[in-house]
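Hey,
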Amino acid sequence: MGGFPALGGGGAGMGGSGPLAAGGTASSIGGSAGAESGGASGGAGGATSQGGGAGVTAGLVIPPMRDTASKVPISHASGYTVEGNYAYGPLTAQRIDVIYPPNAGPKGTQVLPVVLMFHGGAWIHSYTNDYGSGKDHMSTFFDRFLAHGFLVCNAEYRVNDGTADGAVAPAAVQDALLAAKWCWDYLDYFHGDRARYVVTGASAGGHLALMVGMTTPAAMLGPTSPSDFKIAAIVDGYGPADIEAEINAVAKGWIPPSLPNRAAIAKQVSPMTYVRKDIPPVIDVQGSEDNTAPIGDSIRLINLLAAAGADASIHQVQGAGHGFTTPASAWPDAEKAMFDWLTARGIGK
């Protein structure tokens, strides 16, 4: 897709570290529990084996480190084990929960398909405000994936919320790619199936799911599939598909008018920029009446991908707007579309 200029708006927030921004070595994503500086005491260093990543060294599975001092809210899933706030990077928001059923996870015997997911909130809302966003608000997605037999990685990321821990675009995409690499590195530790590694999200999180599966190395935003991890499928839950078109609408808070190189950044973080054949299979599941993340943009993206030869489809949930709250049939319809599609590709059930 051609190269991109070096852009501001988030890169400095990654500590200016080349290895970290690119997924880096394990020591750049480790860090002792409670440490926000990504110190070298992380338990994920060294050379890797088994085609895996930081979690496997010289044949030994090394546990990742949880940030027990983190104040990022943790997911709740009744009847499942929730291991909260693993540090996938050194910054406050770079925390991820891992959720799995009995007889699974590090001490279990089951090897499960894995889903990495991202919450919504227009890239400006998260656990730092009362909007009802943040990873702990993703139960409508992770409950369904858990019920369908998945191990869930539920990620927090930086948003442009005006706090010291926030950041404008492209920080959320950088974090999403870093989280995807962290999960890949530890799939062996959590007994996740490398051939069934799915990414999903809601609204802004749906956009991040698209970016995890579609971003190319030329974007210089971080680790990319399939060179650093391999995404088996993208399930986009009503994510904005054309950020350039939405720069003065839903994306305005994330890419504010005061941001230098604003137009270039919008192009850099837009799924439309990365249309090509060799992306993971993708489905967009979205309300037919969605005007927040315009359904027309999603239809156009899917049509362009299909024309390029990609496995791309869209399912419109009739009568639903942005999200699947109403009508009453919306979530059952969306759930069936998601998991029928995954099952047809040998990933879900």
